[in-house]
Design brief:
The longest helix is centred in the last third of the chain and has 22 residues. This protein is α+β, with helices and mostly antiparallel strands. The protein has a six-stranded mixed beta sheet, with no helix packed on it. Strands 1-18-21-19-20 form a five-stranded mixed beta sheet. A five-stranded antiparallel beta sheet has the order 4-7-14-9-11, with no helix packed on it. It contains 16 helices and 23 strands.
Length: 695
């Protein structure tokens, strides 16, 4: 038996007694103090801050007289208003949070609100750092703790945020975002003051434009900021900081007059149409604390200093996914029956689910720690919700992931009656997986149960909708879990559909063949499950830790057999190269061109390296091949001739985790100069550190 029921939960929509609110390019062979504009007084003089840590950033003001007006001007800080206004952002200092079982627990997917109450991380990243947390043995491997040089601005907790130029840059953003649902709508015409405390780590090799893109956005609905494999940068109207101070806490503020209604307060590092443009800089790490959004009486007479702002946008055109607040249904003791309140909440959820038919959701059932049949009870609770959504509202079954968690994932501690009440729940959260992931999971499940008709049905659905990470349909020919399908007469039609994908190229047959050779290489080496920086078989159907405790692995062939395969692959590629020359991306497609280069590199034939080096260089000059391929092949040629590499693309990872660099020529500056001439990014700091250690 379980305990009693019936209190509200922060950080979600609750149904119970109460309602709450809602790569680097190296080729591896192994594994304010208040600061104001000059015309405003400061509580702390600028002169007290080292001048080297301050940058003044000028923002242009834009004027617009239409409904798409984002802002007219920006004021960083203004004089305080007497009295204490109510903060519309709950848990602004992040002191209210769940039990940390590890540093990165509950930071991914939709679980973040269960750790940092009332906050959402948009799908990934954003670590909670608490000075009172005792790290486990696994956590001790993490060397990124900032507490040896700084502390949270308020209390013990703060949020760790970052931007990684090397993992994205250009059209992609690898950055973290933090969103809070305001306690009431942010209304048109009302004056608000938004603020938070900011600490930015300095770096000698920093992008000079990066920190000024830290700021806020007020949004009508939440957004999923990240998807597996990277997402094109989101261009949102945002308000950025106008003063940057490094290695010190300081407060950033804005006075805002909304031009459209908003519900979410989002903090992050935002792109625009001019930035980012380079992957060459160091990572940016910054910390956030004491977040506040308050209404200001209109009679305060600060209209002149306010920012006119609107967050209106089209999520579909933006390329963003909407982000739903977690729905939490509380159940009575030892019960899985749906109440009228549950059904009302589910009816509301269905409106959102039908509006965005491509979204996938997790239904997780939970109990308190009392009793012995908790897993079964949690599964029954999930089934009650699932049955209602599918049978009453006709939502497709494949849009849901069902998780019966028992008592092992408490929302609150079980040692109090209140905590146990809050743990008896079904939680509906938006999954980071997409429909192609779900279709492929269904394929695997159907094959395992030998229901081949269903397997082909879902495989056809997977073929129709493009994968979020485009690795090509050809991978299904090399997935050993689908061998049963390959023997079925219906496979011929599927194989033809795969081949038809190549008809858009000038050399469809050659493109198909080269891609096939590359996938066969990956199969022989056992790397098809990961495929390096691309999505392999493990991520193709989506990885769910609760369901996939053991990753799918492929055993590599013996080394001699792998080398023999590599020789055969290049023997098959050679006549194609002799007929067409080095493959052009415009004629073969990007995947086949990358595959041709990989096959050449794995051939281990120095004569072929030297023969094709000028062809690869010419292809780079023509814009058909990335310059990193030339640099890698050039360094490979030199190493094969017993000479030191020059572009530093040849490195490996030792079992100890240290980076080992093959012999090189020159120092950091000379290597970077050489790389810059062909547009390669600066050496990553990990490589620079390895260079120093190796010397």
């Amino acid at each position: 038996m379980e305990g009693e029921d019936g209190v509200g939960i922060p950080g979600g929509v609750l149904i119970g007694v109460e309602h709450g609110s809602n790569g680097w390019d190296t080729d591896f062979h192994g594994s304010k103090k208040s600061v104001s504009h000059p015309w405003h007084p400061c509580s702390t003089p600028i002169s007290s801050i080292p001048i080297s840590h301050i940058e003044r950033l000028d923002f242009k003001q834009s004027n617009c007289m239409n409904h798409n007006l984002f802002f007219l001007g920006l004021l960083f800080i203004s004089a305080p208003i007497p009295g204490t206004a109510q903060n519309l952002i709950r848990n602004g200092s992040f002191e209210e949070h769940g039990e940390q079982r590890c540093l990165e627990c509950n930071t991914l997917g939709g679980q973040y609100p269960g750790l940092v109450y009332h906050w959402d991380n948009g799908g990934w990243g954003c670590q909670l750092l608490d000075k009172g947390y005792k790290r486990s043995s696994d956590d001790n491997k993490w060397k990124g703790s900032p507490f040896d040089k700084m502390s949270p601005k308020d209390g013990k907790a703060m949020i760790d945020m970052w931007y990684l130029p090397g993992c994205g840059g250009g059209e992609y953003m690898c950055a973290t975002y933090l969103s809070g649902h305001s306690t009431k709508p942010i209304r048109v015409g009302q004056l608000y003051e938004a603020s938070f405390w900011l600490y930015i780590e300095s770096s000698k090799r920093a992008d000079p434009d990066r920190a000024k893109h830290i700021g806020i956005a007020l949004l009508p609905e939440n957004i999923e900021y990240h998807a597996a494999g990277g997402r094109k940068r989101l261009i949102l109207p945002f308000l950025g900081v106008d003063t940057v101070i490094y290695d010190a806490w300081y407060q950033v503020k804005w006075r805002i007059r909304p031009l459209c209604t908003s519900n979410y307060f989002t903090i992050g590092l935002f792109a625009d149409y001019q930035w980012p443009t380079s992957r060459s800089f160091d990572d940016l790490r910054y910390f956030v604390d004491k977040v506040s959004l308050t209404e200001i009486p209109t009679q305060s007479g600060v209209i002149d200093s306010s920012v006119y702002y609107c967050s209106r946008y089209d999520p579909v055109k933006l390329g963003a996914l909407p982000k739903m607040d977690n729905e939490i249904l509380l159940f009575e003791n030892d019960s899985y029956a749906l109440t009228s309140a549950h059904k009302t909440a589910l009816d509301s959820f269905v409106v959102f689910a039908k509006k965005y038919p491509s979204l996938v959701f997790e239904l997780s059932g939970h109990t308190d720690s009392i009793g012995s049949a908790n897993v079964l009870l949690s599964q029954n609770r999930v089934q009650s919700v699932f049955k209602y959504l599918v049978e009453e509202h006709k939502l497709p079954e494949y849009r849901f992931i069902l998780l019966g968690m028992g008592s092992k994932d408490p929302f609150r501690l079980n040692h109090t009656e209140e905590g146990r009440k809050l743990n008896r729940r079904v939680e509906i959260r938006q999954s980071s997986l997409d429909l192609p992931n779900m279709f492929y999971r269904r394929v695997l499940k159907a094959v395992a149960s030998r229901n081949l008709a269903e397997a082909f049905s879902y495989l056809n659905k997977w073929m129709i909708k493009p994968n979020r990470v485009d690795i090509g349909r050809l991978i299904v020919r090399f997935d050993p879990r689908l061998e049963l399908l390959h023997k079925d007469k219906r496979w011929a039609d599927m194989d033809q559909k795969i081949r038809d994908e190549y008809r858009k190229f000038k050399y469809p047959h050659y493109s198909y063949l080269i891609d096939s050779l590359r996938f066969d290489q990956l199969s022989a080496s056992g790397l098809l499950t990961s495929m390096g920086y691309q999505a392999g078989l493990n991520t193709l159907p989506g990885y769910i830790p609760e369901l996939d405790s053991v990753l799918f692995e492929m055993d590599p062939m013996p080394d001699a057999e792998i080398l023999k395969r590599y020789e055969q692959h290049f023997a098959a590629l050679r006549p194609i190269l002799a007929k067409t020359g080095w493959p052009k991306k415009s004629e073969f497609g990007e995947s086949a061109c990358n595959a041709a280069f990989s096959i050449l590199m794995n051939s281990k034939v120095i004569v072929e390296y030297l023969n094709w080096l000028p062809e690869v260089e010419k292809s780079c000059n023509d814009g058909e091949t990335p310059w990193i391929f030339y640099a890698r092949l050039y360094d490979q040629c030199r190493r094969s001739l017993g000479k030191p590499q020059r572009y530093l693309t040849q490195a490996g990872m030792l079992e100890s985790g240290e980076i080992w660099i093959e012999p090189w020529e020159g120092d950091e500056d000379s290597v970077n100069d050489l790389r810059a001439k062909i547009g390669l990014p600066l050496l990553r700091k990990e490589i620079v550190e390895a260079m120093k250690n190796q010397k």
